[in-house]
Design a protein that fits this description.
Layout (H helix, E strand, L loop, with lengths): L5 H12 L3 E6 L5 H16 L3 E5 L17 E2 L9 E5 L11 H6 L2 E6 L10 E4 L6 H11 L6 H14 L10 H11 L5 H9 L4 H12 L2 E2 L5 E6 L1 H7 L9 H6 L6 E7 L4 E8 L5 H7 L3 E2 L3 E7 L2 H12 L6
Parallel strand pairs: 1-2, 1-4, 2-3, 4-5, 5-6, 8-9
Antiparallel strand pairs: 7-8, 9-10, 10-12, 11-12
């Protein structure tokens, strides 16, 4: 397991020092950690004099519009090829979708991540599974060179920390996580304001979609596993968007007596996106990995091909291998 040692951070900066053009890429369907970390890194490297392009072919979730991603994000690879490609919150080019070829072909690459490794890609790898979020990795990288952290950078990193720790409620929240959050708050942003925008502000369509998700909840015979499902029809009837499901799996996980929670969301592409949460009784990260996905032991995800019914059957069969049902 890589740690955020001086040698590791120096190795990443050595790559940046030798380049002028940098492309920052996130995984597909970026969440708060990927987006916030990538924004802060982009602004930080620009402050260090680098020509940085933050690229994401997909629209970012509207709930993060307060970070003003539209002012930074480009939808296509820059015309002038980057000398360095940076992967944020993932560690292999394939996770970036349409950007994978450009990332893989860059002369040099840097990986910034906090998930268990899935590849050895990267000229330099700055990763630490003990970090609550990739934001901690980016923060350490910037502080290592005394890059000034602006309000915008602090807000982005704090958003990443808030969302990947569930508002500092998940077990991944450690003393260092809170120490970093406190330092970022000294730059002006507020955790309460971020949590209100991300978790406590929903559209009417989103609330109607939540109602349909809650109505669909099923329990295993022993009551320790709960799952909910959303079909394309649910989105059509309510007028909601996939991003409106932010936090739904945590609501299912909040059921009394439930150790493992799952939400399955049908996508227009013909696939089903699955999110897992566990209180520690079952390593859902391993279940997700067996299904072609990944993540952490207590929070993970995967994408399955096929119908919603087929995906539900595969998920439940896999979970039976890892937890009492």
């Amino acid at each position: 397991m890589t740690r955020l040692t001086s040698d590791v951070l120096d190795a990443a900066w050595k790559v940046f020092d030798g380049a002028r053009r940098v492309m920052v890429a996130m995984h597909q369907n970026p969440d708060g950690d990927a987006l916030g970390s990538a924004i802060a890194l982009t602004l930080g490297l620009r402050a260090f004099g680098k020509d940085v392009h933050l690229v994401c072919p997909q629209p970012t979730p509207e709930i993060y519009d307060f970070l003003r991603p539209q002012e930074l994000i480009e939808s296509a690879v820059p015309r002038e090829s980057p000398e360095v490609a940076v992967l944020v919150d993932c560690d292999r080019p394939e996770r970036t979708g349409a950007l994978s070829e450009a990332v893989a072909q860059a002369p040099y690459s840097v990986v910034l991540d906090h998930h268990p490794p899935t590849s050895e890609f990267g000229t330099a790898r700055v990763t630490d599974e003990d970090c609550a979020a990739t934001a901690e990795v980016v923060y350490s990288l910037l502080r290592h060179r005394d890059v000034p952290v602006s309000y915008e950078m602090a807000e982005a990193l704090l958003t990443a920390l808030v969302t990947d720790t569930g508002g500092f409620r998940y077990p991944n929240t450690r003393p260092r996580t809170l120490e970093i959050a406190a330092d970022l708050m000294r730059q002006g942003p507020s955790t309460a304001d971020i949590a209100q925008k991300v978790y406590d502000t929903r559209s009417l369509a989103g609330l109607k979609l939540m109602s349909r998700a809650l109505d669909s909840i099923q329990l295993s015979p022993n009551g320790h596993v709960a799952w909910a499902r959303l079909s394309l029809g649910d989105y059509e009837v309510t007028g909601a968007k996939p991003e409106d499901t932010e936090g739904f799996v945590n609501m299912v996980h909040g059921l009394k007596g439930v150790d493992v929670a799952v939400i399955l969301r049908e996508e227009a592409s013909g696939s089903v996106r699955v999110s897992f949460r566990s209180r520690g009784g079952a390593p859902v990260g391993r279940a997700a990995e067996a299904l072609g996905g990944g993540g952490h032991e207590l929070a993970a995800a995967c994408v399955l091909q096929g119908t919603l019914d087929e995906a539900e059957q595969r998920v439940l069969e896999e979970l039976k291998k890892w937890t009492e049902f």
